[in-house]
Amino acid sequence: MPMGRMTRRTFALGALSALATVPAVPTRSAPVPGRAGPAPAPHPTGRAPRAAGRMRGVWIATVANRDWPSRTGLPASAQREELITHLDRAVRDRLNTVILQVRPTADALWPSPYEPWSEYLTGTQGGDPGWDPLGTAVKEAHARGLELHAWFNPYRIAQHTDLGRLTASHPARRHPDWVVPYDGRLHYNPGLPEVRAFVRQAILDAVARYPVDAVHFDDYFYPYPVDGETFDDDAAYDRHGGAFSSRAAWRRNNIDALVRETAAGVKRVRPGTRFGISPFGVWRNASTDPRGSDTEAGVETYDDLYADTRTWVRNHWIDYVVPQLYWHIGDPAADYARLLEWWAAAAEGTGTRLYIGEALYRAGADGESSAWRDPVELSRHLTLAARYPQVHGHVFFAAADVAADPIGAMARVVADHYPGPAEPPR
């Protein structure tokens, strides 16, 4: 089916991370798949030189045990060993940043006084894993010269709609009026100021406890639209939306407020810690708004997720943005090359650092197009991005795919673009 005619839901599922696009640019010969490529030449001092700080990042997703831990119920020692393996692999591949998902579903991977321990650790929500994953991750990442960005999902509560399955002390059970079921999941209602305050409080607890290098949001704000379903926020809109021209404008303001207030809170609690967001890659299509990208995407963050990502960047409300450009060069609906150009223009002169989110998970995956079966596709992305001074690096989705690297796409990136280690971005 042509992507330009896909439903919004189908397009979103096809383009998202597990939580979701020129002519070919010549690159060097491919290394052996699954290997990190040739080692750099020895430095005269005996230590490899470190390149200037550009983002070389990887996401480690914990929701549904996507990347880590490999399954629930592992003993603390095995969980820690798996985490250390991911960190060591990042160093091996000459990366400098790990973005660890620490609040996947209104829960915590640290001893939070506000939310229960994540079920993805022990298999039981609220079950104490016997160690401190976030605290350990920060310490071990820093010991390896890696930055640790703590990744929080603001509004997702559960991957089901049964409040009774949540632990008895869960805030969503204590405040069922905060909750909206939609698309087979439970969500906090972004239209309630008390929800926004609670989400911010839960996040800032981690920032206060640990010297994380950044707070990171993904692409989930209002949920991705589903045909035939309505996100029921009527009561909140009646109570709080009177000053706005439309429900859409009110919803966008709710998300804008979350972004601004979180940014201010992070800077207040731990000065120097950055705040970044990784949105879906299309703000608006040019057919919707002349300021938009030359795309035919079935989802537009401004209109469907009520996330005005362009404004956040242009107004420098966030320190960095990592648009998920999860398409190949020449994709007919969302061409990586055209989106790269659009985002470079959007970030130019703003002070907001632009990093590009890369779909490593698509390389060699079943059912993907021929472009994604080519191990050189991702390397071409980095070659193309190097033409834009506004682009300050890349982040790869995700850690399990870095480890597996079935067709050697990550190994090709390392061999072609990461000849030595790089200082973390500042």
From TrEMBL:
Alphabetically ordered keywords of this record: Signal
Regions of compositional bias (Low complexity) in chain numbering: 30-52
Organism of this sequence: Streptomyces argyrophylli
Leader sequence residues: 1-20
Domain Glycosyl hydrolase-like span(s) in chain numbering: 55-364
Ranges for region Disordered: 24-52
Protein's name in the database: Family 10 glycosylhydrolase
Gene3D superfamilies hit by this protein: Glycosidases (3.20.20.80)
